[in-house]
Amino acid sequence: MRNLITLNSGKLVPTASLAAELDQPFELIDSIFDTLTDSITCVLADMSLGQLEVQQFMKDGTKNVLASFSIQTFDDKILSFAHFADYNQLVFVLRSGDIITATYDAQTYDPQMTVVEIVGSIETGLEAAAWSPDEETLAMFTTEKTIVLLSKMFEPISEYTLVDEDLKMSKHVNVGWGKKETQFRGKGVRAMEREALASLKASGLVGNELRDPTMPYAVDSGIISDLDNREISISWRGDCEYFVVSSIETVSDPSEDSNNLERRVLRVFTRDGALDSASEPVDYMENNLSWKPQGSLIASIQRKDFNTEEESLELIFFERNGLRHGEFSTRLPPNEKVRQLCWNNNSEVLTIVLNDRIQLWTTKNYHWYLKQEIYGENIQFAKWHPEKDFSLMYGNSNSLNIVDFAFKMIQGPTLEPFDNGTTLVIDGNTINITPLAVANVPPPMSFRDFETPSNVIDAAVNLCNEVYAALNKDFVYIASVSSFEDMKKGKHPDIKCEYSKLEFANENDTLRQVAFINDSVIAVLFDSNNVSNIALIEVQDASQPLVINVIPIMGKVVLIRSSFDYNHLVYETRDGTVMQLDFEGNSEIITKFPQLSRDFRVKRVHNSQSLDDNQWSTSSSELVAFGLTSNGKLYANDVLISSAVTSIEITDSMLLFTTAHHNLQFVHLNSTSFKPLPLVENNIIDERIRAIERGSILVSVIPSKSAVVLQASRGNLETIYPRIMVLSEVRKDILAKKYKDAFICCRTNRINLDILHDYDPELFYQNLELFINQIEKVDYLDLFISCLIEEDVTKTKYKETLSLSIDEAYEVAPPPPTEMQLYMKKKMFDPSTSKVNKICKAMLEVLLSKPEYKKKYLQSILTAYASQNPLQLEDALKLISGLEDADEKDNSVTYLCFLQDVNLVYKVALSLYDIKLSLSIAQKSQMDPREYLPFLQNLFEQEPLRCQFIIDDYLKNFEKALRDLIEINKDGATVSDELIEYIKAHDLYKPALAEYRHNTEKQNYIYAIFAKSLSSQQEYIEAGIIYEMLGDYKEALNAYVLGKKWREALTLATQHFPSLVDETANDLISSLSFDHKYVDVAEIYLQFLDNVEESMTNYCKAYHYDTATLIAAKYNRIELIEKVVDSGLGDGFAVVAELLADCKGQVNSQLKRLRDLRTKKEEDPYSFYGEETEQADDVSIAPSETSTKESFFTRYTGKTSGTAKTGASRRSSKNKRREERKRARGKKGTIYEEEYLVKSIGRLIERVEQTTPDAVRLIAGLCRRNMREQAYQIQKNVVELLDMLKKNVVEIYTISEKDRERVNDNGEIYYLPEIPAPEIKDFPKNKTIDY
User: Fold this and answer.
1) How many Å is the Cα radius of gyration of the chain?
2) Is pLDDT at 940 greater than 60 in this prediction?
3) Where is the composition biased (Low complexity) (predicted)?
4) In angstroms, rounded to a whole number, what is the distance separating the alpha carbons of residues 358 and 453?
5) Which residue of 680, 683, 935, 1120 has the smallest Cβ count within 10 Å?
């Protein structure tokens, strides 16, 4: 859809310094671009005298004479010229066979200092020569048909002599399977076939209907054209790996072996000189040749002049293997002489050089467009710049011209309501017109078109999309339609006027570009002697244009276009200055770009940050020019806002541009303060970023439809509806209370309908009835209600960016919620604060307020009930149950079953005890009638209370069923067996006790069976309390004994069973001793068995030496102190001393192991984690995608790299359990050992803390019994152990973040929680032995 326009052109007329001395004119022979110095090197020569002069023209205008010398041959021809600026060397290859180098002095540029020498010579002479694009290899074709390759240092690489056998290298495939139709035939047979074809055409029949379409009428033999200049051509591929040679060979005639014919052949060679392929025969192919730099196509010319009805000049393509690969008609006369073919550097433009003009062709969708023509006289050569894609140089014998081009998308306005997406495509003399808002016609087709008498160089359309202007070399063509509606109906624009440039310019002036101001003024840019002029032509009456003004411009103009609102013309000069021009000729400077832009837009931007939105004025706005340079930099006035940009467009509120990173980006035009945009990272969810197909560019923007039209690199069009543009319209409609329009827009573009509420909740609730009336359709209202979600979409996926700063970083998508987060969200859900519930309740309030609403929106009411959380199905079913119309009731039931699980609806209907409604719902489910029909039939036959009981029991509403059963048996004197069994079956003791709280007799009966249930569940204490409360002391005593409640048990035994006191006491002593409750045992011995010695013994076991000593003194048993207390102190000393020794040894060994592990891990982590190979419990059972050997990543995380990337878990639950067991064991040599050691020391610290109170009491007892040495040792060992732990606890518990890193089953990295370092408390020292 893009067109080529001329940005700038310059003319250079080099003059040889020897011309005046010799009084002989020098001709311009050749010229090349020098990329190293950004200059142009020209070769001037008088070949009749053998005089040559080389001049270099710098960008600043200076001229250097690099060489001036004579050659030994006269009337020779330069076949190739190269300038190696890095070597200061010029290389000439002459037809006579000489290879001449001229090495100049780059400091003085004195031609007298230039060293000229012949570095080589081909005695037989040369016919063609060409350097490779990298200037490393020279290919030459000798008169003896030999290909010679030389290096840059002129060392031979290879030689290859052409022979007829080469033609057998043709790699084309015969698909005729030996049929006669596919074989070569003579001229007579071909003439007969042409006559047959002409006869078919005359009869009105289509030839392909009468023959096999795969069979050709004739097979080419490769004969040459009479206009062939018989020259040899060489062309290199862009990567310099191959080159192709076009030559004429004499071969035998396939139809008559006795005759010979001349055939032009293409041979493809590698850069080493090896023959790769030869072309298939093609009739009338000529010598012109050019290999596409970035591709596999070789272009050439075929002149079809054998049949007057089919005379044409076609451009044909070959593949590297020599096979044909398409063609297109050049639309030139068959006798037109083609001088040269060449491609531009990026292979987008194919150039056909003629005598008086140069044609530029581009292709999209397999169609070739003639985009531009450059006119000249006696053009000798044309060359594209090797680095600047759109800089072309062409020359004749006297002058050199340099032209810069740029792609231009010729569009109509993007200003509403004129945004029809009108796009103009130039194709030779045809203007293709497609209003993309009306019809998205894929190119090369178009919606409408019109033709001009000659090829078009630029075109434009006015604001109303009804008047068109087209430029060619000498005329401005004005075409129009009566109205845009007529164009929709099929009317093509008609040319109303052919306006000659002589009306406003001179004969030698060059027309370049055209644009519109408003609807009725055309601005034409033309050059006159390197001065730019703009002619303003009034076309109110398209048939009678009138020149208003011709304005000369200071500085060369490179681009003109209409401003955004079409009220002015804006243009850019060569120095990057952007000016605004009105139709009266008044100009105003807007800005100056830091670099020359090849595409730009101008719009007045309102600064909404300084004033309210309603206060639009000139003082609150500024004209802003957005320019795109050739290297992809995007400027807003003089501020660089982005790089790697490929195309731009603007609307009234946004700047749009595509990037080389395949994104479509948007910038809000609500501020005149522009800053560089932030980088676009992965997983961006900002509405200003939209991913697009690779290589797509902007074609048009249609704001009224929220549409953007893109063209992919292959040429097809794609219309997208970016979320930012759609949401912008939705937000406007919401604020304007146009809820129906907003709803339709959201529904069409799959926007979450919650935005209708979330964007302005207060406005929504205030206008809820208006919302319902505008939506009107029940289905639409149902869709809105049923799609509601809890989140505020205006804060998540549809966050508005209008108020954000232009340089604020784009929002990145948050990670998906984990299962735990989802669980906690569900668990913490509060129905009272639910957005969905609030909207549904508000809807119900309105819909149930009026009978007409209730009748019309019954389905929506049911939707509102069914969409709440928790579900309000009871209210919905009650509403349905109250309907009188049977059909309406049935439809409502069907709809409700569609909304929710029919089994759930069935159960809710049963809970309402509505059997008929339940039956209706069951019939719409997948339940087996043999199951639900007998059940429902049984319900019909039961009494109401029994029916309710059966339903509640079926629904597992056991408490309600219990109440029903109690109500059924309320007249009974006792609790019925059925009720008792039901309570036992469903553990309904507490509800039953609550129901009988006013009936003590029945409640006591329930308590009795409850106590038995508690005893069976080993809840003896509660059972004992109930038995004691009921007066069953024997059972209470047994329960207390089993529950080890010795005080309660001995109390009952003493009060009610004195004979059982000793037995009870002994039973309690046995069970309490087993639990190490020695203090309780000691009290029982002392209080109930009067056994002082055993009491003291148990106090000593509990380290209560002071209490044991007190008892001995109280009961006057002093002798027991030495016997019992001293013995207990010895036992306690042994236990504590052994414990402390074990702890100290464990700390030392585990601390040493920890340090060894961490040192080894730092020195060689791979070896550390790879120690356990045979029992690698953390290796995935599937191999890595790159290796079958487990990696460090695999062993450490339990995932292969492929597993982690895909998130696929390959570990079974069995493997997970096994891993947890190994983690708990902390086996030596595994990756879990460090974690195990840390936790082991933590358990040791806890044990020491638990032992500290016993150690304090032991030390006190030892001191009182004058066992001071033992006391000293215990206190010393405890203090040393605690000091050791306190000193190393930080080191022990410090685990690096890398060591805590793990990968879960979803491939996500997570970290084990840090193990907090415990606080080591000081030991309360006994001052008696603190020395």
Assistant:
1) 49
2) yes
3) 1197-1210
4) 18
5) 683
